[in-house]
Write a structure and sequence with these properties.
This protein has helices spanning about 20-30, 35-45, 80-85, 100, 125-130, 160-165, 205, 260-265, 305-310; strands at about 110-115, 120-125, 135-145, 150-160, 175-180, 200-205, 215-220, 220, 230-235, 245-255, 290, 300. Helix 1 packs antiparallel against helix 2. With about 325 residues, it is α+β, with helices and mostly antiparallel strands.
């Protein structure tokens, strides 16, 4: 299937929020506790309501959480305006300018269903789940299979905390996550040729690796709808399509799932999807990438630069297509 891909970096740099402005705002919020300051800043950004306003998002007071730099502090941080207006979210369209369409998605109430090989299946509201998790902020590199990249500050919690909360059975080998299916708003889901709902999975040792992250915030406030609100996966050593958005289902199983892109085009997209600059996509090289807002390409790093944290996961899996 031919997917329409944008090839330009349409947003002029002069419109981007400078990194220094974001950092200054974050320091102000942390030092003074003024959520209204962050609200005022967010109103200047296209497609983003005052998510920090408690009348809009009851979890706004959790942000920004304390920064965790254990996994590095990569720079330069991508300007916020770029990261929230250049998005892959195929449920809303196949171009990068889906942030407007995504604003129609209602994220309250939001329920997450946990099932499969667990001690006891259950459902939990997103706000209730968030209140039980240890929130922090991490600055991660993000590498898309399409060869664009960004560096952004995610807020959320370690995925291993979520796994422990779900109490999986000892025989569970994989975690399967699914995106909301609501064709009335996510209109691309009306296309019967796509294997909806969007489904992704991780092996249990990947899901419980310290680097795996569940994101609920971005740039020091609740995450925007176009970026996967209210809850999404972030696995920075893998290509971005592994990071399922707007999660409504978490299932533990002993059978490897077939993920969305694998089901659609398994000759191009595999289950593991780890970043490797020496393994090209069947239709283009993965040796370099183009950061959002930049006119130059830079070398791509093995495991997106996180090899010290994750390479050991694959020592006994070298016979598989780990980087496809």
């Amino acid at each position: 299937m031919l997917i329409k891909r944008s090839t330009g970096w349409q947003l002029p740099e002069r419109q981007a929020t400078p990194e220094g402005l974001y950092l200054d705002r974050r320091r102000l919020v942390q030092a003074m506790g003024l959520g209204l300051a962050a609200s005022a800043a967010s109103l200047a950004l296209p497609g983003v309501a005052a998510a920090d306003d408690k009348a809009v998002d009851p979890t706004a007071h959790f942000y920004p959480p304390k920064r965790n730099d254990k996994f590095g502090d990569p720079t330069p941080v991508t300007p916020e305006r770029l990261a929230i207006t250049y998005n892959n979210y195929y449920e809303f369209g196949t171009d990068k300018s889906i942030w407007r369409a995504a604003q129609k998605l209602e994220i309250r109430p939001w329920t997450i269903k946990v099932g499969g090989m667990v001690e006891k299946p259950f459902e939990i509201g997103f706000d209730d789940l968030l209140a039980k998790m240890p929130l922090e902020e991490r600055v991660y590199r993000h590498r898309c299979v399409e060869t664009w990249s960004m560096i952004v500050p995610w807020s959320g919690f370690a995925m291993k905390s979520l796994v422990a909360f779900c109490k999986p059975a000892g025989g569970a080998k994989y975690v399967v996550m699914k995106t909301l299916q609501k064709p009335s708003v996510m209109f691309e889901q009306k296309d019967p040729l796509w294997p909806w709902p969007y489904t992704e999975g991780l092996a249990m040792d990947e899901a419980t690796n310290d680097l795996a992250f569940i994101a609920t915030g971005l740039y020091g406030k609740p995450i925007g709808k176009q970026n996967g609100a209210p809850i999404r996966l972030v696995v920075p050593w893998k290509y971005g399509f592994k990071s399922v958005k707007s999660i409504v289902s978490i299932e533990f199983t002993d059978k490897r799932p077939v993920s969305f892109w694998e089901a659609l085009q398994d000759n191009e997209y595999g289950f593991w999807a780890n970043v490797n600059p020496k393994v090209p996509h069947p239709r283009w090289s993965q040796a370099t990438e183009k950061p959002l807002g930049s006119d130059e390409r830079i070398p791509t790093q093995l495991y997106n630069g996180y090899g010290e944290f994750v390479s050991s996961l694959y020592e006994n899996r070298k016979s598989e297509k780990l980087f496809m």
